[in-house]
Amino acid sequence: xxxxxxxxxxxxxxxxxxxxxxxxxxxxxxxxxxxxxxxxxxxxxxxxxxxxxxxxxxxxxxxxxxxxxxxxxxxxxxxxx
Length: 81
Description:
Number of domains: 1
Number of strands: 0
Shape: globular
Distance between the termini: 20 Å
């Protein structure tokens, strides 16, 4: 699924996809979305940047995240790789 192609209010396709998953898998994704939402503020984004740019990950994300306007979009940063 290409999330960037969806508008802000186009949630039906995501809801339908999640509804078709086994309950355990859907619950895991819902928990992930809740954690992401909790980081969607100035302080949360600051923590994401500090973690990404730490000695553990050594990623340069300040410029990329700085160009994004919405904190929720910034909070989807994945530094697990």
